[in-house]
Amino acid sequence: MATHTERRGFLGQASRFVVVGVIGALIDSGVYALALHLDVWVHAARALSFVCGTTAAYALNRRWAFRVSGGARQATGYAVLYGVMFFVILGANAHALAVFPAAWWAVPLAWIVSQGFGTTCNFVMLRTVVFRDRRFVSAGPT
Length: 142
What we know:
Blueprint: H1 4-37, H2 42-65, H3 72-99, H4 106-130
Helix pairs in contact: 1-2, 1-4, 2-3, 3-4
């Protein structure tokens, strides 16, 4: 069973992760909208926006949300995770675009779907693998 300290640690990380996620999403969606406005191909626009939002989120997650100092292990783990997530999110975006009808709302909704799916996966992987804080890891569920 999780202790009070473990629950507080998890809730603090989750809250900070949400704030970082909002900032990253604003950057991501802003770059996406700008790229689409400049007539960049929708999949290239999503790739570019993902890279920009991810770069900002890495710096904020590392220093503030998960409060870890530099380290090659974390940077490598983050790069591998986001390399995989790059394709997962682009795939989710492409799938949503293929499933949704050709309507004005399809492109922004596909971004929202892919962003939401990616954010959920990212938090789980960042917390359990990349920025793992052994102080908050217990034998039981948290």
